[in-house]
Protein backbone atom coordinates (compact mmCIF):
# COMPACT_ATOMS: atom_id res chain seq x y z
CA UNK A 1 0.00 0.00 0.00
CA UNK A 2 1.26 3.42 -0.94
CA UNK A 3 4.76 2.08 -1.36
CA UNK A 4 5.80 4.10 -4.36
CA UNK A 5 6.74 7.67 -3.59
CA UNK A 6 4.97 10.63 -5.09
CA UNK A 7 6.81 13.48 -6.73
CA UNK A 8 5.55 15.59 -3.80
CA UNK A 9 7.89 13.69 -1.48
CA UNK A 10 10.84 14.30 -3.76
CA UNK A 11 10.06 18.02 -3.73
CA UNK A 12 9.64 18.04 0.05
CA UNK A 13 12.97 16.31 0.62
CA UNK A 14 14.76 18.65 -1.75
CA UNK A 15 13.20 21.58 0.08
CA UNK A 16 14.15 20.48 3.60
CA UNK A 17 17.70 19.71 2.50
CA UNK A 18 18.06 23.30 1.36
CA UNK A 19 16.03 25.18 3.96
CA UNK A 20 15.68 23.26 7.21
CA UNK A 21 18.89 23.01 9.27
CA UNK A 22 17.76 19.82 11.02
CA UNK A 23 17.55 18.05 7.65
CA UNK A 24 20.67 19.43 6.02
CA UNK A 25 22.34 16.54 4.24
CA UNK A 26 19.30 14.23 4.32
CA UNK A 27 19.59 11.74 1.42
CA UNK A 28 17.01 12.03 -1.35
CA UNK A 29 15.78 8.57 -2.29
CA UNK A 30 15.02 7.81 -5.92
CA UNK A 31 11.31 7.76 -6.78
CA UNK A 32 11.15 3.96 -6.80
CA UNK A 33 12.67 3.61 -3.36
CA UNK A 34 10.80 4.04 -0.10
CA UNK A 35 11.57 6.22 2.90
CA UNK A 36 12.80 3.37 5.05
CA UNK A 37 16.41 4.53 4.81
CA UNK A 38 15.55 7.86 6.46
CA UNK A 39 15.55 8.33 10.24
CA UNK A 40 12.30 8.24 12.20
CA UNK A 41 11.35 11.46 13.95
CA UNK A 42 10.23 10.92 17.53
CA UNK A 43 8.25 13.39 19.58
CA UNK A 44 11.30 13.94 21.81
CA UNK A 45 13.38 14.71 18.71
CA UNK A 46 11.02 17.55 17.87
CA UNK A 47 11.38 18.98 21.36
CA UNK A 48 15.16 18.70 21.21
CA UNK A 49 15.41 20.06 17.67
CA UNK A 50 13.75 23.36 18.62
CA UNK A 51 14.08 25.93 15.87
CA UNK A 52 16.34 23.79 13.73
CA UNK A 53 13.20 22.04 12.42
CA UNK A 54 11.80 25.35 11.20
CA UNK A 55 12.38 26.56 7.69
CA UNK A 56 14.86 29.39 7.17
CA UNK A 57 12.86 30.73 4.24
CA UNK A 58 9.27 31.87 4.43
CA UNK A 59 7.71 34.43 6.74
CA UNK A 60 7.30 33.24 10.36
CA UNK A 61 4.91 36.13 11.04
CA UNK A 62 2.42 34.48 8.72
CA UNK A 63 2.72 31.06 10.37
CA UNK A 64 0.08 29.47 12.52
CA UNK A 65 1.31 27.84 15.73
CA UNK A 66 -0.51 24.77 17.01
CA UNK A 67 0.27 23.26 20.36
CA UNK A 68 -0.42 19.67 21.12
CA UNK A 69 -0.29 17.79 24.36
CA UNK A 70 0.24 14.07 24.17
CA UNK A 71 0.10 11.47 26.89
CA UNK A 72 3.81 11.97 27.44
CA UNK A 73 3.58 15.39 29.03
CA UNK A 74 5.41 18.38 27.57
CA UNK A 75 3.34 20.18 24.94
CA UNK A 76 4.67 20.33 21.43
CA UNK A 77 4.37 23.34 19.13
CA UNK A 78 4.21 22.93 15.38
CA UNK A 79 4.17 25.84 12.93
CA UNK A 80 2.16 25.84 9.71
CA UNK A 81 2.29 28.03 6.64
CA UNK A 82 -0.91 28.57 4.67
CA UNK A 83 -1.02 25.69 2.10
CA UNK A 84 -1.84 23.00 4.71
CA UNK A 85 -4.57 25.22 6.17
CA UNK A 86 -6.15 25.79 2.76
CA UNK A 87 -5.84 22.09 1.98
CA UNK A 88 -7.65 21.19 5.18
CA UNK A 89 -10.70 23.15 4.04
CA UNK A 90 -10.59 21.50 0.61
CA UNK A 91 -10.44 18.05 2.17
CA UNK A 92 -13.40 18.76 4.46
CA UNK A 93 -15.41 20.13 1.52
CA UNK A 94 -14.51 17.12 -0.61
CA UNK A 95 -15.62 14.69 2.10
CA UNK A 96 -18.89 16.61 2.57
CA UNK A 97 -19.49 16.45 -1.19
CA UNK A 98 -19.03 12.70 -1.16
CA UNK A 99 -21.72 12.62 1.52
CA UNK A 100 -24.06 14.64 -0.67
CA UNK A 101 -23.50 18.16 0.65
CA UNK A 102 -22.45 20.47 -2.17
CA UNK A 103 -22.20 24.24 -2.52
CA UNK A 104 -20.64 26.44 0.16
CA UNK A 105 -22.51 25.51 3.32
CA UNK A 106 -19.87 26.88 5.70
CA UNK A 107 -17.80 24.89 8.15
CA UNK A 108 -18.82 25.23 11.80
CA UNK A 109 -16.45 23.86 14.41
CA UNK A 110 -18.08 23.30 17.80
CA UNK A 111 -16.20 23.37 21.10
CA UNK A 112 -17.34 23.14 24.69
CA UNK A 113 -14.41 24.30 26.80
CA UNK A 114 -14.88 27.64 28.52
CA UNK A 115 -11.68 29.25 27.15
CA UNK A 116 -11.34 29.79 23.41
CA UNK A 117 -13.61 32.52 22.00
CA UNK A 118 -16.05 32.04 19.14
CA UNK A 119 -14.76 33.42 15.87
CA UNK A 120 -15.75 33.51 12.24
CA UNK A 121 -13.92 34.38 9.08
CA UNK A 122 -14.14 34.09 5.36
CA UNK A 123 -11.36 31.79 4.27
CA UNK A 124 -8.36 33.94 3.35
CA UNK A 125 -7.54 31.62 0.43
CA UNK A 126 -10.16 33.03 -1.90
CA UNK A 127 -12.25 29.86 -1.99
CA UNK A 128 -15.31 31.61 -0.54
CA UNK A 129 -15.60 29.28 2.44
CA UNK A 130 -16.82 30.57 5.79
CA UNK A 131 -15.03 29.08 8.77
CA UNK A 132 -16.60 29.51 12.16
CA UNK A 133 -15.56 28.32 15.57
CA UNK A 134 -18.42 28.36 18.04
CA UNK A 135 -17.79 27.80 21.72
CA UNK A 136 -21.02 26.37 23.11
CA UNK A 137 -20.11 26.77 26.79
CA UNK A 138 -22.36 29.83 27.10
CA UNK A 139 -25.21 28.50 24.99
CA UNK A 140 -25.14 25.57 27.40
CA UNK A 141 -26.44 27.87 30.16
CA UNK A 142 -29.80 28.38 28.41
CA UNK A 143 -32.84 26.24 29.15
CA UNK A 144 -33.39 23.15 26.97
CA UNK A 145 -35.84 24.78 24.57
CA UNK A 146 -33.83 27.94 23.95
CA UNK A 147 -30.70 25.83 23.68
CA UNK A 148 -32.16 23.55 21.01
CA UNK A 149 -33.72 26.43 19.05
CA UNK A 150 -30.53 28.44 18.82
CA UNK A 151 -28.45 25.41 18.05
CA UNK A 152 -30.73 24.33 15.20
CA UNK A 153 -30.80 27.82 13.73
CA UNK A 154 -27.00 28.03 13.68
CA UNK A 155 -26.20 24.54 12.42
CA UNK A 156 -28.82 24.42 9.64
CA UNK A 157 -27.29 22.97 6.50
CA UNK A 158 -23.73 23.43 7.75
CA UNK A 159 -20.76 21.12 7.83
CA UNK A 160 -20.24 20.50 11.54
CA UNK A 161 -16.93 19.41 12.97
CA UNK A 162 -16.19 18.61 16.62
CA UNK A 163 -14.74 15.95 18.83
CA UNK A 164 -17.01 12.92 19.24
CA UNK A 165 -17.26 13.69 22.96
CA UNK A 166 -18.69 17.14 22.16
CA UNK A 167 -21.23 15.66 19.71
CA UNK A 168 -22.05 13.11 22.42
CA UNK A 169 -22.76 15.81 25.01
CA UNK A 170 -24.90 17.66 22.45
CA UNK A 171 -26.80 14.48 21.60
CA UNK A 172 -27.58 13.97 25.28
CA UNK A 173 -28.66 17.56 25.75
CA UNK A 174 -30.90 17.48 22.66
CA UNK A 175 -32.62 14.33 23.89
CA UNK A 176 -34.59 11.86 21.77
CA UNK A 177 -35.91 14.52 19.42
CA UNK A 178 -32.38 15.41 18.34
CA UNK A 179 -31.90 18.02 15.65
CA UNK A 180 -32.76 17.71 12.00
CA UNK A 181 -30.78 20.64 10.75
CA UNK A 182 -27.09 20.01 9.99
CA UNK A 183 -25.78 19.05 6.56
CA UNK A 184 -23.16 16.64 7.78
CA UNK A 185 -21.41 15.74 11.02
CA UNK A 186 -17.65 15.18 10.88
CA UNK A 187 -15.97 13.88 14.02
CA UNK A 188 -12.32 14.53 14.60
CA UNK A 189 -9.66 14.62 17.27
CA UNK A 190 -10.65 11.49 19.21
CA UNK A 191 -11.72 7.98 18.42
CA UNK A 192 -15.42 7.36 18.82
CA UNK A 193 -16.79 4.24 20.50
CA UNK A 194 -19.55 2.49 18.45
CA UNK A 195 -22.39 3.16 20.91
CA UNK A 196 -21.56 6.88 20.97
CA UNK A 197 -21.47 6.94 17.19
CA UNK A 198 -24.88 5.26 17.02
CA UNK A 199 -26.32 7.88 19.33
CA UNK A 200 -24.82 10.73 17.26
CA UNK A 201 -26.26 9.23 14.05
CA UNK A 202 -29.69 8.85 15.63
CA UNK A 203 -29.92 12.35 17.07
CA UNK A 204 -28.37 14.44 14.28
CA UNK A 205 -30.37 12.87 11.43
CA UNK A 206 -27.65 13.52 8.84
CA UNK A 207 -24.63 11.75 7.40
CA UNK A 208 -21.92 11.13 10.01
CA UNK A 209 -18.31 10.54 9.13
CA UNK A 210 -14.95 11.07 10.71
CA UNK A 211 -11.61 12.64 10.03
CA UNK A 212 -8.38 11.16 11.25
CA UNK A 213 -6.50 14.26 12.33
CA UNK A 214 -3.33 15.07 14.20
CA UNK A 215 -2.59 18.50 15.57
CA UNK A 216 0.94 18.19 14.16
CA UNK A 217 -0.33 17.44 10.66
CA UNK A 218 -3.94 18.40 10.05
CA UNK A 219 -6.11 15.86 8.25
CA UNK A 220 -4.24 12.61 7.79
CA UNK A 221 -7.06 10.43 6.48
CA UNK A 222 -10.84 10.41 6.05
CA UNK A 223 -13.29 7.68 6.79
CA UNK A 224 -14.35 5.28 4.04
CA UNK A 225 -18.02 5.90 3.18
CA UNK A 226 -18.56 2.15 2.90
CA UNK A 227 -16.82 1.00 6.07
CA UNK A 228 -16.94 2.78 9.41
CA UNK A 229 -13.57 2.97 11.16
CA UNK A 230 -11.66 2.35 7.92
CA UNK A 231 -9.64 5.37 6.81
CA UNK A 232 -8.46 6.33 3.36
CA UNK A 233 -5.09 8.09 3.25
CA UNK A 234 -5.39 11.68 2.11
CA UNK A 235 -2.42 11.43 -0.19
CA UNK A 236 -2.40 15.10 -1.04
CA UNK A 237 -1.97 15.89 2.67
CA UNK A 238 0.50 13.33 3.91
CA UNK A 239 2.46 10.20 3.24
CA UNK A 240 1.68 7.37 5.65
CA UNK A 241 3.78 4.40 6.58
CA UNK A 242 2.83 1.69 9.04
CA UNK A 243 5.97 0.27 10.56
CA UNK A 244 5.46 -2.71 12.87
CA UNK A 245 2.02 -1.28 13.61
CA UNK A 246 3.27 2.27 14.32
CA UNK A 247 1.83 5.07 12.19
CA UNK A 248 4.59 7.25 10.68
CA UNK A 249 3.43 10.39 8.93
CA UNK A 250 5.16 12.76 6.55
CA UNK A 251 3.01 15.86 5.98
CA UNK A 252 3.51 16.96 2.38
CA UNK A 253 2.40 20.57 2.17
CA UNK A 254 3.74 22.25 5.31
CA UNK A 255 6.97 24.06 4.54
CA UNK A 256 7.12 26.06 7.81
CA UNK A 257 8.14 23.11 9.97
CA UNK A 258 8.44 19.93 7.93
CA UNK A 259 8.24 16.61 9.77
CA UNK A 260 9.54 13.50 8.05
CA UNK A 261 8.57 10.01 9.20
CA UNK A 262 7.08 11.35 12.42
CA UNK A 263 6.02 8.60 14.81
CA UNK A 264 2.56 9.76 15.83
CA UNK A 265 1.94 7.39 18.72
CA UNK A 266 -1.09 5.83 17.02
CA UNK A 267 -1.11 2.24 15.86
CA UNK A 268 -2.81 0.88 12.76
CA UNK A 269 -2.85 -1.86 10.13
CA UNK A 270 -3.41 -1.72 6.38
CA UNK A 271 -6.64 -3.30 5.15
CA UNK A 272 -4.92 -5.28 2.41
CA UNK A 273 -8.24 -6.38 0.95
CA UNK A 274 -9.21 -2.74 0.40
CA UNK A 275 -12.82 -1.69 0.83
CA UNK A 276 -16.01 -1.64 -1.20
CA UNK A 277 -16.12 2.06 -2.04
CA UNK A 278 -14.70 3.54 -5.24
CA UNK A 279 -11.85 5.47 -3.65
CA UNK A 280 -8.46 4.30 -4.79
CA UNK A 281 -6.44 5.66 -1.86
CA UNK A 282 -5.00 2.99 0.45
CA UNK A 283 -7.15 2.15 3.43
CA UNK A 284 -6.20 1.26 7.01
CA UNK A 285 -7.78 0.88 10.40
CA UNK A 286 -6.52 2.22 13.70
CA UNK A 287 -5.74 -0.46 16.23
CA UNK A 288 -5.08 2.00 19.04
CA UNK A 289 -4.98 5.76 19.23
CA UNK A 290 -3.00 7.89 21.59
CA UNK A 291 -5.23 9.39 24.20
CA UNK A 292 -5.67 13.10 23.51
CA UNK A 293 -6.97 13.68 27.01
CA UNK A 294 -5.78 16.67 28.90
CA UNK A 295 -6.95 19.02 31.62
CA UNK A 296 -7.11 22.78 31.45
CA UNK A 297 -5.23 25.19 33.67
CA UNK A 298 -6.98 28.26 35.06
CA UNK A 299 -5.65 30.33 32.16
CA UNK A 300 -6.59 27.84 29.49
CA UNK A 301 -3.29 25.95 29.12
CA UNK A 302 -3.19 22.21 28.61
CA UNK A 303 -1.80 19.63 31.02
CA UNK A 304 -1.71 15.99 30.07
CA UNK A 305 -3.75 13.72 32.32
CA UNK A 306 -0.77 11.36 32.37
CA UNK A 307 0.98 13.93 34.58
CA UNK A 308 -1.35 13.07 37.45
CA UNK A 309 -1.56 9.33 37.09
CA UNK A 310 1.41 8.66 39.35
CA UNK A 311 -0.32 10.43 42.23
CA UNK A 312 -3.58 8.68 41.41
CA UNK A 313 -2.31 5.12 41.36
CA UNK A 314 -0.85 5.52 44.84
CA UNK A 315 -4.44 5.77 46.14
CA UNK A 316 -6.26 2.73 47.57
CA UNK A 317 -8.51 2.31 44.53
CA UNK A 318 -9.02 -0.40 41.93
CA UNK A 319 -9.62 1.98 39.06
CA UNK A 320 -9.58 5.74 38.64
CA UNK A 321 -10.20 8.32 35.93
CA UNK A 322 -10.00 12.08 35.62
CA UNK A 323 -12.09 14.40 33.51
CA UNK A 324 -12.44 18.12 33.01
CA UNK A 325 -15.83 19.51 33.98
CA UNK A 326 -15.56 23.01 32.61
CA UNK A 327 -13.03 25.57 33.71
CA UNK A 328 -11.57 25.05 37.16
CA UNK A 329 -13.36 21.78 37.88
CA UNK A 330 -12.05 18.26 37.71
CA UNK A 331 -14.07 15.13 38.29
CA UNK A 332 -12.47 11.99 39.66
CA UNK A 333 -14.33 8.72 39.18
CA UNK A 334 -12.98 5.80 41.15
CA UNK A 335 -13.77 2.25 42.07
CA UNK A 336 -12.97 1.07 45.59
CA UNK A 337 -14.59 -0.89 48.38
CA UNK A 338 -14.64 2.06 50.77
CA UNK A 339 -14.86 5.77 50.07
CA UNK A 340 -11.55 7.65 49.96
CA UNK A 341 -10.63 9.32 53.22
CA UNK A 342 -10.21 13.06 53.52
CA UNK A 343 -6.42 12.78 53.44
CA UNK A 344 -6.49 10.50 50.37
CA UNK A 345 -8.71 13.02 48.61
CA UNK A 346 -6.29 15.77 49.52
CA UNK A 347 -3.42 13.66 48.17
CA UNK A 348 -5.26 13.37 44.85
CA UNK A 349 -6.40 16.97 44.70
CA UNK A 350 -3.15 18.71 45.68
CA UNK A 351 -1.20 17.96 42.45
CA UNK A 352 -4.24 18.96 40.41
CA UNK A 353 -4.48 22.29 42.19
CA UNK A 354 -0.80 23.01 41.93
CA UNK A 355 -0.78 22.29 38.19
CA UNK A 356 -4.15 23.71 37.16
CA UNK A 357 -4.64 26.61 39.57
CA UNK A 358 -5.21 26.89 43.30
CA UNK A 359 -8.92 27.51 42.86
CA UNK A 360 -9.46 24.18 41.07
CA UNK A 361 -12.36 22.22 42.51
CA UNK A 362 -12.06 18.48 42.55
CA UNK A 363 -15.10 16.26 42.97
CA UNK A 364 -14.98 12.54 43.80
CA UNK A 365 -17.44 9.90 42.63
CA UNK A 366 -17.22 6.31 43.81
CA UNK A 367 -18.62 3.49 41.67
CA UNK A 368 -19.19 -0.24 41.97
CA UNK A 369 -17.11 -2.28 39.56
CA UNK A 370 -20.07 -3.01 37.27
CA UNK A 371 -21.20 0.58 37.19
CA UNK A 372 -17.83 2.16 36.48
CA UNK A 373 -18.43 4.64 33.68
CA UNK A 374 -15.72 3.34 31.36
CA UNK A 375 -14.25 0.07 30.27
CA UNK A 376 -10.52 0.52 30.40
CA UNK A 377 -9.87 3.06 33.10
CA UNK A 378 -9.19 5.78 30.58
CA UNK A 379 -10.66 9.17 31.32
CA UNK A 380 -14.00 10.15 29.86
CA UNK A 381 -16.16 13.23 29.78
CA UNK A 382 -19.13 11.98 31.77
CA UNK A 383 -22.30 12.45 29.72
CA UNK A 384 -24.71 15.19 30.70
CA UNK A 385 -22.03 17.29 32.35
CA UNK A 386 -23.03 20.87 32.85
CA UNK A 387 -20.48 23.37 31.67
CA UNK A 388 -19.95 25.94 34.43
CA UNK A 389 -18.25 29.22 33.63
CA UNK A 390 -15.93 30.78 36.11
CA UNK A 391 -16.56 30.93 39.82
CA UNK A 392 -19.91 29.93 41.23
CA UNK A 393 -21.67 31.79 44.02
CA UNK A 394 -20.66 29.14 46.57
CA UNK A 395 -17.05 29.29 45.41
CA UNK A 396 -16.88 33.04 45.78
CA UNK A 397 -18.64 33.02 49.10
CA UNK A 398 -16.49 30.39 50.81
CA UNK A 399 -13.34 31.75 49.26
CA UNK A 400 -14.06 35.29 50.43
CA UNK A 401 -14.96 34.10 53.89
CA UNK A 402 -11.67 32.28 54.38
CA UNK A 403 -9.79 35.19 52.79
CA UNK A 404 -11.25 37.73 55.21
CA UNK A 405 -10.72 35.42 58.19
CA UNK A 406 -7.12 34.81 57.20
CA UNK A 407 -6.40 38.52 56.82
CA UNK A 408 -8.45 39.54 59.89
CA UNK A 409 -10.72 41.76 57.84
CA UNK A 410 -14.27 42.45 58.92
CA UNK A 411 -16.20 44.38 56.29
CA UNK A 412 -19.79 45.19 57.16
CA UNK A 413 -20.89 43.40 54.00
CA UNK A 414 -19.57 42.12 50.69
CA UNK A 415 -22.27 42.17 48.04
CA UNK A 416 -22.30 40.57 44.62
CA UNK A 417 -24.22 42.06 41.67
CA UNK A 418 -24.26 41.63 37.93
CA UNK A 419 -23.95 38.91 35.37
CA UNK A 420 -22.29 36.35 37.64
CA UNK A 421 -25.82 35.99 39.06
CA UNK A 422 -27.29 35.49 35.59
CA UNK A 423 -25.12 32.91 33.81
CA UNK A 424 -27.33 33.20 30.72
CA UNK A 425 -26.26 36.80 30.13
CA UNK A 426 -22.67 36.39 31.12
CA UNK A 427 -20.13 37.07 28.39
CA UNK A 428 -16.48 36.12 28.37
CA UNK A 429 -15.68 39.80 29.01
CA UNK A 430 -17.97 40.24 31.99
CA UNK A 431 -16.55 41.29 35.34
CA UNK A 432 -17.41 39.85 38.71
CA UNK A 433 -18.83 42.92 40.49
CA UNK A 434 -18.37 43.08 44.24
CA UNK A 435 -19.39 45.96 46.47
CA UNK A 436 -17.57 46.25 49.73
CA UNK A 437 -19.58 48.00 52.45
CA UNK A 438 -17.30 49.24 55.22
CA UNK A 439 -16.73 52.28 57.39
CA UNK A 440 -12.97 51.89 56.99
CA UNK A 441 -11.32 54.52 54.79
CA UNK A 442 -10.81 53.15 51.25
CA UNK A 443 -7.02 53.42 51.68
CA UNK A 444 -7.17 50.68 54.32
CA UNK A 445 -8.51 48.31 51.68
CA UNK A 446 -6.26 49.16 48.73
CA UNK A 447 -3.70 46.46 49.55
CA UNK A 448 -6.20 43.65 50.26
CA UNK A 449 -8.26 44.45 47.16
CA UNK A 450 -5.12 44.38 45.03
CA UNK A 451 -4.31 40.94 46.44
CA UNK A 452 -7.83 39.65 45.88
CA UNK A 453 -7.75 40.89 42.29
CA UNK A 454 -4.50 39.06 41.68
CA UNK A 455 -6.36 35.84 42.47
CA UNK A 456 -9.41 36.70 40.40
CA UNK A 457 -8.48 38.97 37.47
CA UNK A 458 -12.11 39.53 36.36
CA UNK A 459 -12.99 40.98 39.76
CA UNK A 460 -14.19 44.56 40.02
CA UNK A 461 -14.44 45.79 43.59
CA UNK A 462 -16.43 48.90 44.49
CA UNK A 463 -16.19 50.33 47.99
CA UNK A 464 -18.80 52.29 49.90
CA UNK A 465 -20.09 52.87 53.41
CA UNK A 466 -23.72 52.70 54.38
CA UNK A 467 -23.55 56.42 55.16
CA UNK A 468 -22.07 57.36 51.77
CA UNK A 469 -24.47 55.31 49.73
CA UNK A 470 -26.77 58.28 49.05
CA UNK A 471 -23.90 59.98 47.24
CA UNK A 472 -23.35 56.97 45.01
CA UNK A 473 -24.68 56.38 41.53
CA UNK A 474 -28.47 56.00 41.81
CA UNK A 475 -28.48 53.09 39.34
CA UNK A 476 -25.71 51.34 41.30
CA UNK A 477 -27.92 51.64 44.39
CA UNK A 478 -30.91 50.23 42.49
CA UNK A 479 -28.74 47.33 41.39
CA UNK A 480 -27.62 46.64 44.94
CA UNK A 481 -31.26 46.60 46.05
CA UNK A 482 -32.53 44.44 43.15
CA UNK A 483 -29.61 42.12 42.51
CA UNK A 484 -27.43 42.40 45.60
CA UNK A 485 -26.51 39.00 46.96
CA UNK A 486 -24.51 39.28 50.19
CA UNK A 487 -21.49 36.99 50.26
CA UNK A 488 -20.54 38.25 53.71
CA UNK A 489 -22.67 40.17 56.20
CA UNK A 490 -26.13 41.31 55.17
CA UNK A 491 -27.52 43.80 52.71
CA UNK A 492 -27.80 47.27 54.31
CA UNK A 493 -31.20 48.98 54.04
CA UNK A 494 -30.47 51.21 51.04
CA UNK A 495 -33.19 53.69 50.07
CA UNK A 496 -34.54 53.48 46.48
CA UNK A 497 -33.29 56.60 44.64
CA UNK A 498 -35.70 59.24 43.36
CA UNK A 499 -36.82 58.84 39.73
CA UNK A 500 -35.53 62.30 38.85
CA UNK A 501 -32.08 61.40 40.15
CA UNK A 502 -32.14 58.19 38.10
CA UNK A 503 -33.32 60.02 34.99
CA UNK A 504 -30.64 62.72 35.38
CA UNK A 505 -27.92 60.13 35.68
CA UNK A 506 -29.47 58.12 32.82
CA UNK A 507 -29.41 61.05 30.39
CA UNK A 508 -25.72 61.66 31.09
CA UNK A 509 -24.81 58.00 31.00
CA UNK A 510 -26.64 57.36 27.71
CA UNK A 511 -25.18 60.45 26.04
CA UNK A 512 -21.66 59.55 27.11
CA UNK A 513 -22.23 55.97 25.93
CA UNK A 514 -23.50 57.24 22.55
CA UNK A 515 -20.35 59.36 22.19
CA UNK A 516 -18.16 56.38 23.05
CA UNK A 517 -19.98 54.22 20.50
CA UNK A 518 -19.64 56.93 17.83
CA UNK A 519 -15.92 57.16 18.57
CA UNK A 520 -15.61 53.39 18.23
CA UNK A 521 -17.77 53.42 15.07
CA UNK A 522 -15.50 55.93 13.36
CA UNK A 523 -12.30 54.17 14.44
CA UNK A 524 -10.69 53.02 11.16
CA UNK A 525 -9.87 49.66 12.77
CA UNK A 526 -13.37 48.85 14.02
CA UNK A 527 -14.59 47.41 10.74
CA UNK A 528 -11.97 44.70 11.01
CA UNK A 529 -11.96 44.36 14.80
CA UNK A 530 -12.96 41.29 16.75
CA UNK A 531 -16.73 41.05 16.30
CA UNK A 532 -17.19 39.42 19.68
CA UNK A 533 -15.55 42.32 21.53
CA UNK A 534 -17.56 44.92 19.60
CA UNK A 535 -20.77 43.00 20.23
CA UNK A 536 -19.92 43.06 23.92
CA UNK A 537 -19.56 46.84 23.92
CA UNK A 538 -22.94 47.15 22.19
CA UNK A 539 -24.47 44.61 24.59
CA UNK A 540 -23.26 46.51 27.63
CA UNK A 541 -24.71 49.82 26.42
CA UNK A 542 -28.04 48.25 25.38
CA UNK A 543 -28.53 46.50 28.73
CA UNK A 544 -27.63 49.54 30.80
CA UNK A 545 -29.67 52.03 28.73
CA UNK A 546 -32.64 49.68 29.03
CA UNK A 547 -32.04 49.54 32.80
CA UNK A 548 -32.34 53.33 33.11
CA UNK A 549 -35.51 53.38 31.07
CA UNK A 550 -36.95 50.49 33.05
CA UNK A 551 -36.33 51.86 36.55
CA UNK A 552 -37.64 55.32 35.63
CA UNK A 553 -40.76 54.35 33.67
CA UNK A 554 -41.61 50.74 34.40
CA UNK A 555 -40.53 48.75 37.37
CA UNK A 556 -38.04 48.42 40.20
CA UNK A 557 -35.98 45.75 38.48
CA UNK A 558 -32.41 45.79 37.14
CA UNK A 559 -31.66 42.16 36.29
CA UNK A 560 -30.64 41.91 32.64
CA UNK A 561 -33.08 39.11 31.83
CA UNK A 562 -36.21 40.92 33.09
CA UNK A 563 -35.11 44.31 31.80
CA UNK A 564 -34.34 43.08 28.28
CA UNK A 565 -37.53 41.01 28.13
CA UNK A 566 -39.56 44.11 28.99
CA UNK A 567 -37.64 46.77 27.07
CA UNK A 568 -36.31 45.15 23.92
CA UNK A 569 -38.44 44.07 20.96
CA UNK A 570 -37.86 40.30 20.79
CA UNK A 571 -38.00 40.36 16.96
CA UNK A 572 -34.74 39.71 15.14
CA UNK A 573 -32.86 43.01 15.00
CA UNK A 574 -29.24 44.16 15.10
CA UNK A 575 -29.71 44.84 18.85
CA UNK A 576 -30.91 41.31 19.67
CA UNK A 577 -28.21 39.91 17.40
CA UNK A 578 -25.51 41.93 19.18
CA UNK A 579 -26.65 40.57 22.53
CA UNK A 580 -26.74 36.97 21.32
CA UNK A 581 -23.35 37.25 19.66
CA UNK A 582 -21.80 38.87 22.76
CA UNK A 583 -23.17 36.02 24.91
CA UNK A 584 -22.07 33.50 22.25
CA UNK A 585 -25.62 32.22 22.00
CA UNK A 586 -25.09 32.35 18.26
CA UNK A 587 -21.85 32.11 16.30
CA UNK A 588 -20.45 35.49 15.24
CA UNK A 589 -21.12 36.35 11.58
CA UNK A 590 -18.09 36.31 9.29
CA UNK A 591 -18.65 39.74 7.76
CA UNK A 592 -16.74 42.54 9.45
CA UNK A 593 -19.59 45.00 8.88
CA UNK A 594 -21.53 43.26 11.66
CA UNK A 595 -19.47 45.18 14.23
CA UNK A 596 -20.66 48.47 12.74
CA UNK A 597 -24.27 47.28 12.71
CA UNK A 598 -24.12 46.44 16.42
CA UNK A 599 -22.57 49.78 17.38
CA UNK A 600 -25.20 51.65 15.36
CA UNK A 601 -28.05 49.73 17.01
CA UNK A 602 -26.68 50.30 20.51
CA UNK A 603 -26.14 53.99 19.84
CA UNK A 604 -29.71 54.41 18.57
CA UNK A 605 -31.05 52.80 21.76
CA UNK A 606 -28.83 54.97 24.00
CA UNK A 607 -29.97 58.14 22.21
CA UNK A 608 -33.65 57.15 22.32
CA UNK A 609 -33.46 56.47 26.06
CA UNK A 610 -31.55 59.73 26.64
CA UNK A 611 -34.29 61.64 24.78
CA UNK A 612 -37.11 59.95 26.69
CA UNK A 613 -35.45 60.57 30.04
CA UNK A 614 -34.72 64.17 28.97
CA UNK A 615 -38.40 64.71 28.11
CA UNK A 616 -39.37 63.29 31.46
CA UNK A 617 -37.05 65.70 33.26
CA UNK A 618 -38.31 68.73 31.35
CA UNK A 619 -41.82 67.78 32.32
CA UNK A 620 -43.33 66.44 29.10
CA UNK A 621 -44.01 63.14 30.76
CA UNK A 622 -43.79 64.22 34.35
CA UNK A 623 -47.52 63.84 35.04
CA UNK A 624 -47.64 60.35 33.60
CA UNK A 625 -44.69 59.17 35.63
CA UNK A 626 -44.55 60.96 38.95
ZN1 LIG B 1 -13.39 2.95 0.91
Q: Averaged pLDDT, please? A: 84
Q: How many individual helices?
A: 16
Percent of residues in beta strands = 15-25%
Q: Which structural class should the secondary elements be placed in?
A: alpha/beta
Describe the structure in your own words.
With 626 residues, this protein is α/β, with parallel strands linked by helices. 35% of the residues lie in helices and 21% in strands. It contains 16 helices and 23 strands. It has helices at residues 7-19, 43-49, 82-98, 144-155, 164-174, 194-204, 306-313, 342-356, 393-406, 443-455, 474-483, 499-521, 531-554, 560-567, 574-582, 593-617; strands at 64-68, 76-80, 107-111, 119-122, 130-135, 159-162, 184-187, 208-214, 218-224, 227-233, 238-243, 246-251, 262-270, 283-288, 294-296, 302-304, 319-324, 329-335, 361-367, 413-417, 432-437, 459-464, 485-489. The strands form 5 sheets. Strands 4-5-3-6-7-8-9-10-14-13-12-11 form a 12-stranded mixed sheet. Strands 22-21-20-23 form a 4-stranded mixed sheet, sandwiched between helices. A 3-stranded mixed sheet has the order 17-18-19, covered by helices on one side. α13 crosses α14. The chain is globular, with a radius of gyration of 28 Å. The N and C termini lie far apart (85 Å). Mean pLDDT is 84; it is low at 69-73 and 374-388. The structure holds zinc ion. Zinc ion binds at residues 224, 226, 232, 275, 277, 279, 283.
